[in-house]
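User: Cyclin G1. Structure?
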Amino acid sequence: MRMEKIVLEKVCWKVKATTSFQFLQLYYSLIRENLPFERRKNLSFERLEAQLKACHCRIMFSKAKPSVLALSIIALEIQEQKFIELMEGVECLQKHSKDSYGEEIQLF
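Assistant: Predicted structure:
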């Protein structure tokens, strides 16, 4: 990682951290693709964004990984809206989102 940082500095390339909002956008687009057209209006990005903003106002969520926070918000919204057909998709995203120790993130 040190070598990568040196190379990036030499080519004047700045790397920005990925935010929880960007993860939320990504997860939302992936989940929305699998929804039937008539149910897409029930999954509101504005509502998810508001929930994310509320989480950022709380100190206990400040240390959460951005990907975990975004995926948790999506998972809770899917449970609340009772999108049973999307539970498998969220579980798939959950399996692919691993923490630094390689363990799966448990949302449910």
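Residues 46-100+104-108 form one domain. The chain is about 55% helix and 0% strand.
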